[in-house]
Design brief:
This protein is α/β, with parallel strands linked by helices and 595 residues long. 43% of the residues lie in helices and 19% in strands. A hairpin with a 2-residue loop joins strand 9 (231-243) and strand 10. Helix 1 runs antiparallel to helix 4 (122-162), helix 9 crosses helix 10 and helix 20 crosses helix 21 (564-572). The longest helix is centred in the first third of the chain and has 41 residues, at 122-162. It is elongated. The termini are far apart.
Length: 595
C-alpha cells in the first residue's frame, strides 16, 4: 500500500498535529519520500530523505521512539547529517497497515521550548500520534477498498460486455439503470437512450408484480422488438434482483434469434464444405451436369435435382450451395421421406411454446428458420404429403413461414434446392403432387445420370473407394482384377454410386490378398454376371436402349415439321416435358427445333 494515494489526507493530518502540539511535522513514506510537512518542512515536500536518518531507522524498526539528545541517540549514529543537525528533539511514530510499515510521522523541535513541550508530555503525545497514525491507516484502507470496488466494478463491466447476450437491469417499475454494450447493440440504442427507456418498451407487456413479488423466473420467452429505427425477433430470460425475501428489480438477458441461429449453423454446418471437384467422375454426361450446376449456383432460383437413388443428389446440392454467394450461410438438409408425416410440419416450420401437448418449453425453430440466409435442401420431395405441399407452396411464393401455434408470419431469406428419385410429372397426373408446386420447384432442373450411363467413371470410382477403405480399414489392397472389373462394367447398378461404394467396402473386408477377385464380391454381383452371360446368347436389348431408338426414330420422322416435339410426344404417348427430359438424359442430338 502506498501513502501517496491519500497524500491530501496525510497533509491535513500533519497540519492538525502541528496545530495541537505546536511543533513542525513531516511524514515520510516507505520509499523515503517526504509526502507531507508543516513549517520549514513544507517546502521540502517531494524530496528524498536519507535511508540512514532517524526516519530510516523508524521504518526499519517499526517502533515509535523519542530522540531527546540529537546526534548522540543510537538512531542518529549512522546519520550523515549528525554533526550539522540543528534539531533539539525528534519524535518518530511509524504508520502500520497490518504487519507492514508504510510510513513515519515525525515531530521536530527546533528550540528548547519545543523540546520541553515534547519531553514533558511524552505519554500523551505518543498516544495522540498513534491515533493519528491509525487515522491515516484507516484512510489508506478506505482508499484501497474504494479502488478495489472500482476495480471489481470495472471487471464486472468487462465480463458483462464480453457476454454475447444483452444484459439489462431495471428497477421495480421497469426503469433501466444498467446495461452492457451488447444490449445497446441488439436494440441499436446509443448514449443515454437505453437508460431513458423502460424495459417494457423493449419486450412489451411483462408482469413485474409476478416477477418481483413472487420471485418468479422467466426463460426462453420470445418477443418482437419494434423500435423507430430497428425491429427484430428475439428471446429473453428474466430474473428478479432479490436480497433475502425482498426484490428490488429484475435482470433481463436478451438474444437476437437470427444471431442464435447463426451460431447453431456455424457449429453444425460450418465445416462441411463441398465443391464440384468433390464429385468424382469425368464422363461427358457428368461433366455436362456439373457445368449446368455451376451456372445454377450463381442464381437464386429454386433447383430441382432429379436422379435415381444413390446418384449423389445431395452432393450436387451441397456443391451448388458452396459455389454460390450463400456459401457463408447455412446448408440445412432435410429428408422428407425419413421423418414421420405427423412431425414433418414441425420440423419444417417449428412451433411456439405450448402449441400442442408435449411441445418443448420455449418452442422450437424449424429447418426453414435455421436455413435463413442460406440454403435448405429438401431431399425426397416426391414423398411429401399433399397437405404439406400446400404450405410449402406458400413458403416458395411468399418467402415467409408460420410456426405451429404462431400468430405472425416470419420472413425468411432461403434458397430452396429439392431432389427426388420419383417421376414428379407422373405424380402430378395421378394427383399425388401439386402441379403449381412442381412448376415452382422445377425452375432449374438438374438430371443426374445413373452410374450405368457413365461407365467410364466406374474405374475412377473404384480406385477412389479402394483408397478410402484401405485407409479406413487399414488394409493394403492394390487393385481389383480384370474379371471383377468386367463384372462391375456389366452390372446395372440399381443403387448407383452408393451401391458401388458399399460393394467396394464389402470386398475390402472380404479380401485376404492384395487383389480383389470375384470370390470377394457380394453374391448379387456374381448372380448378375451369370445372368448377363446367359442373356448374351439370346441378344436381349435393354428397355432404355429401345426407348432411345424409338425417340430418335420419332424425331427423325417428324423432323421436317415445325411442331416436331409436339407430334413426336403424341406419337410416343409422352408429355412434351418428359420427352425433353429423355432427350437430354439419353444425349440425343436434335437437328430440328420447335418454335
Amino acid at each position: 500500500m502506498d501513502l501517496i494515494k491519500i497524500v491530501s489526507n496525510v497533509q491535513k493530518t500533519s497540519e492538525a498535529i502541528s496545530s495541537v502540539i505546536g511543533v513542525d511535522v513531516t511524514v515520510v513514506d516507505n520509499n523515503y519520500n517526504r509526502i507531507a510537512g508543516t513549517g520549514r518542512y513544507r517546502k521540502c515536500i517531494g524530496e528524498k530523505v536519507n535511508e540512514k536518518s532517524a526516519f530510516g531507522f523508524a521504518l526499519t524498526q517499526g517502533e515509535n521512539f523519542i530522540i531527546e539528545n540529537p546526534r548522540k541517540h543510537f538512531a542518529c549514529l549512522k546519520c550523515e547529517n549528525a554533526y550539522t543537525c540543528k534539531e533539539f528533539a525528534e519524535v518518530c511514530c511509524p504508520i502500520h497497515v497490518g504487519n507492514d510499515t508504510v510510513g513515519v510521522i515525525g515531530l521536530i523541535a527546533f528550540d528548547e521550548e519545543q523540546r520541553m513541550a515534547i519531553i514533558n508530555n511524552e505519554v500523551n503525545l505518543m498516544n495522540f500520534l498513534n491515533r493519528m497514525a491509525d487515522l491515516i491507516t484507516s484512510k489508506l484502507l478506505e482508499q484501497e477498498n474504494t479502488e478495489q470496488i472500482k476495480l471489481l466494478a470495472r471487471e464486472l463491466e468487462i465480463v458483462l460486455d464480453s457476454v454475447d447476450r444483452g444484459i439489462v437491469a431495471a428497477d421495480r417499475t421497469g426503469n433501466i439503470f444498467h446495461y452492457n454494450t451488447k444490449a445497446a447493440e441488439i436494440f441499436k440504442l446509443h448514449g443515454n437512450e437505453i437508460q431513458t427507456t423502460n424495459v417494457k418498451d423493449l419486450i412489451g407487456s411483462l408482469n413485474f408484480k409476478h416477477l418481483i413479488e413472487k420471485h418468479k423466473n422467466l426463460e426462453n420467452q420470445e418477443f418482437t422488438y419494434t423500435g423507430s429505427k430497428h425491429h427484430f425477433r428475439g428471446i429473453f430470460d428474466a430474473k428478479p434482483i432479490s436480497i433475502g425475501v425482498k426484490s428490488f428489480g429484475i435482470v433481463c438477458a436478451f438474444s437476437n434469434i437470427s444471431d442464435l441461429l447463426k451460431t447453431v449453423n456455424n457449429i453444425t454446418t460450418g465445416t462441411i464444405v463441398t465443391s464440384f471437384d468433390s464429385i468424382i467422375g469425368s464422363s461427358n454426361c457428368l461433366e455436362q451436369v456439373k457445368v449446368e450446376a455451376k451456372k445454377a449456383s450463381k442464381s437464386t432460383s429454386t433447383v430441382l435435382i432429379l436422379g435415381e437413388s444413390g446418384t449423389g443428389k445431395e452432393l450436387f446440392a451441397r456443391a451448388v450451395h458452396f459455389h454460390s454467394n450463400r456459401a457463408e450461410g447455412p446448408f440445412i438438409p432435410i429428408n422428407c421421406a425419413a421423418i414421420p408425416e405427423q412431425l414433418l410440419e414441425s420440423e419444417f416450420f417449428g412451433y411456439e411454446d405450448g402449441a400442442f401437448t408435449g411441445a418443448r418449453k420455449g418452442g422450437k425453430s424449424g429447418k426453414f428458420e435455421l436455413a435463413n440466409k442460406g440454403t435448405i435442401f429438401l431431399d425426397e420431395i416426391g414423398d411429401m404429403p399433399i397437405h404439406l405441399q400446400t404450405k410449402l407452396l406458400r413458403v416458395v411464393q411468399e418467402y415467409a413461414i408460420e410456426k405451429i401455434g404462431g400468430k405472425e408470419p416470419i420472413h425468411i431469406d432461403v434458397r430452396i434446392i429439392a431432389a427426388t428419385n420419383k417421376d414428379l410429372e407422373k405424380k402430378v397426373l395421378e394427383g399425388e403432387f401439386r402441379q403449381d408446386l412442381f412448376y415452382r420447384l422445377n425452375v432449374i432442373p438438374l438430371n443426374i445420370p445413373p452410374l450405368r450411363d457413365r461407365k467410364d467413371d466406374i474405374v475412377i470410382l473404384v480406385n477412389y473407394f479402394l483408397d478410402k477403405y484401405n485407409s479406413k480399414l487399414q488394409k493394403h489392397i492394390n487393385k481389383i482384377d480384370d474379371v471383377s472389373l468386367e463384372i462391375f462394367m456389366n452390372y446395372l447398378w440399381p443403387g448407383n454410386i452408393r451401391e458401388l461404394e458399399n460393394t467396394i467396402e464389402y470386398a475390402v473386408n472380404m479380401c485376404s490378398s492384395g487383389v480383389i477377385k470375384c470370390v470377394d464380391l457380394p453374391n448379387r454381383l456374381k448372380i448378375s454376371e451369370n445372368t448377363v452371360k446367359s442373356y448374351k446368347n439370346v441378344e436381349i436389348t435393354p428397355i432404355k436402349e429401345l426407348e432411345k431408338r424409338e425417340i430418335e426414330k420419332a424425331l427423325e420422322y417428324f423432323g421436317h415439321s415445325k411442331q416436331v416435339i409436339t407430334k413426336a410426344a403424341e406419337a410416343l404417348m409422352l408429355s412434351r416435358a418428359t420427352l425433353y427430359r429423355k432427350i437430354k438424359e439419353y444425349g440425343i442430338k436434335q437437328s430440328h427445333t420447335e418454335n
